[in-house]
Amino acid sequence: GEANCAVVISDEPIGSPLVTEPPIAVIMNKPSMLKFTPAMETGGLMLYNASLIDIAPARDDITAVPVDCNAIAEQLGNARTANMVMLGAIIEKTHVISIDSAMEALRLTFGPKKEHLLPINRQAMEAGAAAVRG
After folding, report:
1. What is the DSSP string of 28-47?
2. Which of 27, 30, 90, 129 is least enclosed, having the fewest CB within 10 Å?
3. How high is the pLDDT of residue 8?
4. CA-CA distance, 43 to 113, in Å (whole number)?
5. Hey, what's the torsion of the CAs at 82, 10, 102, 93, to 10 degrees?
6. Which pLDDT tens digit goes with each residue over 24-62?
């Protein structure tokens, strides 16, 4: 099914976190592609999981970037890192943060008990960035 989350990133105070026409969309499955593509801002950027979505977005006024998230994650030996592959692709296309910043946030979130998961998550992010580079 579809799920969504809006994230607003700004150096200025955010008056309202409500996003009605997102300039950037990250789409992980086909039902979400069908539901959320129409709302995107003209000229927006969409990154979509081409491993699970077998259609291109039905708009020619946005930039659509396919990312084989699941296939890349499986090649890395951990299918559960598909979301981190996408995060790497987002970072590469937007430069809103760095992979190092994302890794530091993960390190703080995971804590010592899950520290062993950091290397595979970095590999996944770097593979996602590489997949959309160029």
Report:
1. -SHHHHHHHGGGSPTT-EEE
2. 30
3. 86
4. 43
5. 50
6. 999 999 999 999 999 999 999 999 999 999 999 989 999
